[in-house]
Amino acid sequence: MQAVDLARRTYTCRKWDISGLPCEHTISAIYVKDQDPIGFVDSCYNQRKYLEAYDPIIHTIAGEDQWPLVLAPMEPLAYRAPPGRPKS
């Protein structure tokens, strides 16, 4: 028999404990209690924690209007037929 404990945020299948995300059975139990499942998702999945984790790493890049100009337009590579007999 499976048991959901919303106060402890546990379920005997352990999916919720391991992932921090309520599984389908837990979400059903949350809806039975007329609560919002979003409130039961682990805080590591919210936007604030994401931004805190990547704040020192993610840097913005310059827009296309600020890219350096090149001297000449880039040309495509020259086509070379693969070695061997043609297949047609």
TrEMBL record:
Any GO molecular function: zinc ion binding
KW Metal-binding (keyword) present: yes
Keyword Metal-binding attached: yes
SMART domains listed in its UniProt record: ZnF_PMZ
InterPro entries assigned to the protein according to its UniProt record, in alphabetical order: Znf_PMZ, Znf_SWIM
Superkingdom in the source lineage: Eukaryota
Domain Zinc finger PMZ-type intervals: 9-36
Keywords tagged on the record: Metal-binding, Zinc, Zinc-finger
Protein's name in the database: Zinc finger PMZ-type domain-containing protein
